[in-house]
Write a structure and sequence with these properties.
- The relative contact order is 0.12.
- By secondary structure, this protein is α+β, with helices and mostly antiparallel strands.
- The protein has helices at 11-24, 40-44, 63-72, 89-97, 107-114, 116-125, 141-151, 174-192, 249-266, 296-303, 307-315, 394-407, 417-424, 427-430, 438-444, and strands spanning 4-7, 27-33, 47-52, 77-79, 101-102, 155-159, 169-171, 197-201, 207-215, 221-233, 236-242, 270-279, 282-289, 332-339, 351-352, 356-357, 364-368, 375-376, 383-391, 409-410.
- It has 3 domains: 4-88 and 98-103, Rossmann fold (3-Layer(aba) Sandwich); 132-201, 2-Layer Sandwich (Dna Ligase, domain 1), CATH 3.30.1490; 207-444, D-amino Acid Aminotransferase, Chain A, domain 1.
- The strands form 5 sheets. An 8-stranded antiparallel sheet has the order 13-12-9-10-11-14-19-17, sandwiched between helices. A 5-stranded parallel sheet has the order 3-2-1-4-5.
- It is globular, with a radius of gyration of 21 Å.
- 34% of the residues lie in helices and 25% in strands.
- The structure holds adenosine-5'-diphosphate.
- Adenosine-5'-diphosphate is lined by residues 131, 156, 162-165, 200-203, 206, 208, 232, 235, 275, 277, 286-287, 436.
- Adenosine-5'-diphosphate (ADP) is lined by residues 131, 156, 162-165, 200-203, 206, 208, 232, 235, 275, 277, 286-287, 436.
């Protein structure tokens, strides 16, 4: 039984984990940098420990300080949230070696899925369809040319250790291949300390559709349907919805069953997300995230489940206690990521919040650690709030979202609320007709692409 959890994160997700713990009667330990001494998760936790200066590498990524804090506070378990150390297999292994429970998958699964070449091979062997491309790593320009001939242009060169949408290069023709390959390799080495790259067919107008799974330590795996995360800017998700407006029930059930079956085969446990590109009725695996995701609330809203609570229960060894037949999807949910940034130039806008008023009412959920008088520090990710809305159908959800966005007041800094408002008036978005490239065009053309 887990009785005390150290939350190795900050911002809204630290608060989200804290809330689940409190409802379960589990004690909480917050860790924080000096820049976050006044943060909401620190104020609300049962105990808090400062683990270092503002720079993440000295605080939220400081494994030794975090393990010391867990020892001093006599925590049983560590929840890593998302980002920071959540997909660091060495950290997960260290946590277990020090006698704490890591609230997440096994270090081996984190390591496997963190290596995208190995991940692709492993899920493909387990029956999941993947994007056509090179057979593993592409080690030379010569190999790149040969692989591209088989795949056909355009191609995408991707870093095996990549993440956050960085280190990807498109080549539209043989003439562009040399430069794309060489830069992708150099950037992979520079960003991720690992120059290994692979090649995929570049899909021209896919949607990004991901499947959420939940797996216990006893071999039970369920899928919780899909999320459509096609609205992206620079490969960063801006708005997510569940279910996807593009799928029918039969496609949903088929891909869900394929994913659950594959996760059972590889012995996966905890939460996980299998990301696909979807084009012309076909699914192509791109990567698996071995952690809780930013957009998990849309799944929670349509399934009526608390994913953080489930993660904690499962990490303590509890059986899932329900089967796929018990999972019922209800209505529609959309999440808007609200960032502290200029809605047109996307320049970060940290600073002190003046008036703060969050929307409420039926079906409206705010996951945020903001409060009036809080200063958004410049050192971390610019996402400051998630507005999640649920409705009996997509249309009701959109009406509710428009209403909620118009009520939301965050004074003192610039936010992406106006961008979301603009999106709500776009016919393509309202009709659910968009692919992964649509938002970039919508933003740069100042309106409908
Ligand atoms: P990361 O781990 O950096 O997020 P992903 O493999 O998940 O990398 O890809 C991120 C995004 O890049 C996807 O959501 C999609 O928008 C785009 N992308 C990835 N692979 C392809 C592909 N083969 N064709 C077209 N777009 C792609």
């Amino acid at each position: 039984m887990i009785e005390k959890v150290l939350i190795a994160n900050r911002g809204e997700i630290a608060l989200r984990i804290l809330r689940a713990c409190r409802e379960m009667g589990v004690q909480t330990v917050a860790v924080h940098s000096t820049a976050d001494a006044d943060a909401m998760h620190v104020r609300l936790a049962d105990e808090s420990i400062c683990i270092g200066p503002p720079a993440a590498k000295d605080s939220y990524l400081n494994t030794h300080a975090i393990l010391s804090a867990a020892t001093i506070s006599a925590a049983d378990a560590i929840h890593p949230g998302y980002g920071f150390l959540s997909e660091n297999a060495d950290f997960a292994a260290m946590v277990e070696e020090h006698g704490f429970t890591f609230i997440g998958p096994s270090p081996d699964h984190i390591r496997l899925m963190g290596d995208k070449i190995a991940a692709k091979k492993s899920v493909s062997d387990a029956g999941i369809p993947v994007v056509p491309g090179s057979d593993g790593e592409v080690i030379s320009l010569d190999e790149a040319r040969k692989a591209a001939e088989v795949t056909g242009f355009p191609v995408l060169i991707k870093a095996s250790a990549g993440g956050g949408g960085r280190g990807m290069k498109v080549a539209n023709s043989a003439a562009e291949l040399d430069e794309a390959y060489t830069t992708a390799r150099a950037e992979a080495q520079q960003f991720f300390g690992n120059g290994a790259v692979y090649m995929e067919k570049f899909l021209s107008r896919p949607r990004h559709i991901e499947v959420q799974v939940l797996a216990d330590h006893h071999g039970t795996v369920v899928h919780l349907g899909e999320r459509d995360c096609s609205l992206q800017r620079r490969h960063q998700k801006i708005l997510e919805e569940a279910p996807s407006p593009a799928l029918n029930n039969s496609e949903r059930e088929t891909i869900g069953a394929i994913v659950s079956d594959a996760m059972r085969k590889i012995g996966y446990r905890s939460v996980g997300t299998i990301e696909f590109l979807y084009e012309d009725g076909e699914f192509y695996f791109i990567e698996m995230n071995t952690r809780l995701q930013v957009e998990h609330p849309v799944t929670e809203m349509i399934c009526g489940l608390d994913l953080v609570r489930e993660m904690i229960r499962l990490a303590g060894g509890a059986p899932l206690g329900f089967t796929q037949d018990d999972v019922k999807f209800n209505g529609h949910a959309i999440e808007c990521r609200i960032n502290a940034e200029n809605p047109e130039t996307f320049a970060p806008s940290p600073g002190r919040i003046g008036d703060y008023h969050a929307p409420g009412g039926l079906g409206v959920r705010i996951d945020s650690a903001l409060y009036s008088g809080y200063s958004v520090p410049p050192h971390y990710d610019s996402m400051i709030a998630k507005l999640i809305v649920h409705g009996t159908n997509r249309n009701e959800c959109l009406m509710r979202l428009r209403r909620s966005l118009s009520e939301y007041v965050i004074d003192g800094i610039e936010t992406s609320i106006p961008l979301h408002q603009k999106l709500m008036s776009s016919a393509s978005f309202v009709n659910g007709e968009y692919d992964i490239h649509w938002l970039e065009a919508f933003v740069s053309d100042d309106g409908e692409p």
